[in-house]
Design brief:
20% of the residues lie in helices and 30% in strands. With 342 residues, it is of the alpha/beta class.
Length: 342
């Protein structure tokens, strides 16, 4: 075991897995791995595949997929070196995205606008460690809280990134905001992808992530030829939408400033037209704040109030709309996207 002292937090690194990892529940994982930890496992090829799970404690699919992968290779050699990062196991204990005193573990990586903290320091250390280990590719596994298809996210449009994402499926999202995400940090030195595997309670998400990680373990190199346009549907995130923290919100029937449509999440990955109503607003104050990829406010480009209704002003495609009020407060209401032609 190696330990890197980071302020008052130690980033722990191991060369073997703890006993019991292959069959423990995600809620009890903190008993084996109480702190963010790296596990470096040897394989036939020295180029290392990096897999990050549980950056959000209420998104267990990545951990369950890794469990399944480790069970497969329990009695045989891995095709290549594999480094596993287990993130917020303390939040996973309570099935929460993060605990109240914690930062979001997928906003702390190099490039983050957050102030220095023990978490930003160990995230920086992880990047340094993995650059030294000749990382082949990076995979960060997530779930959605709302109704969303499975898709892969990339932070660069380089061909290797697109080929990596296409291994997961033809639906890709290119984004450069928010800053400080794991895939964005790793994209500076290797092909990196974020997998969005649907809701946490869907077994297919586990199977899909497992098959993808296993395929990457066997991948010798990325194809040299460009990705064909007809093989991919790629969207570019153009805005992140937050509910103003001074605004109370809920859903139809709640006595709040903003009563959102209860069918909201069915709009995910659907092109919605100008005039679409998202909710009812009390008073004349705009309840949402939309920002572009540079953090500039662009609310009026997408939203307006018409006779107490919150309406879309132009055609757009949302993602990650959810009915989970805690997630909306801790992260955002949604992202807005446009189709990208490569």
């Amino acid at each position: 075991m190696q330990s890197i002292l980071v302020s008052n937090m130690v980033l722990k690194q191991f060369d073997s897995l703890p006993d019991g990892l292959l069959d423990i529940s995600v809620e009890h994982l903190h008993r084996l791995i109480p702190e963010p930890s790296l596990f470096h496992l040897s394989g036939k090829s020295q180029e290392t595949l990096f897999v990050s799970v549980l950056l959000h404690g209420n998104e267990p699919t990545g951990f369950l997929a890794v469990q399944k992968l480790l069970q497969k290779y329990q009695e045989q050699a891995l095709p290549r070196n594999l480094t596993l990062f287990f993130g917020n196991t303390q939040a996973a204990r309570f099935n929460m995205r993060r605990l109240d005193h914690q930062p979001d573990f997928n906003r702390i990586w190099p490039g983050t606008p957050l102030p220095p903290s023990p978490e930003t320091e160990w995230a920086k250390q992880i990047c340094q460690v993995m650059q030294q280990r000749h990382v082949f590719a990076s995979i960060d596994v997530h779930n959605n809280t709302g109704l969303n298809p499975h898709y892969a996210c990339v932070n660069k449009l380089d061909e290797a990134f697109l080929h990596l994402g296409l291994l997961f499926g033809r639906l890709l999202v290119y984004f450069t905001h928010p800053k400080g995400v794991q895939s964005g940090a790793f994209a500076e030195f290797c092909p990196a992808v974020t997998l969005e595997c649907g809701r946490p309670d869907q077994p297919y998400g586990v199977e899909h992530a497992f098959q993808f990680i296993d395929s990457c373990l066997h991948l010798h190199e990325f194809p040299a030829q460009p990705v064909a346009r007809q093989d991919v549907d790629i969207y570019h995130t153009v805005a992140q939408v937050m509910v103003d923290e001074k605004i109370s919100f809920g859903f139809n029937g709640d006595e709040v400033d903003l009563a959102l449509n209860q069918e909201l999440e069915r709009m995910n990955f659907t092109e919605i037209q100008a005039g679409t109503v998202l909710g009812e607003v009390k008073g004349g104050r705009m309840p949402l704040i939309a920002r572009d990829n540079d953090g500039n406010p662009i609310t009026e480009q997408f939203f307006e109030l018409v006779a107490g209704q919150l309406q879309i002003t132009k055609s757009t495609m949302p993602s990650m709309l959810t009915l989970n009020q805690r997630v909306i407060r801790q992260d955002c209401l949604c992202y807005l996207m446009e189709r990208l032609i490569i």
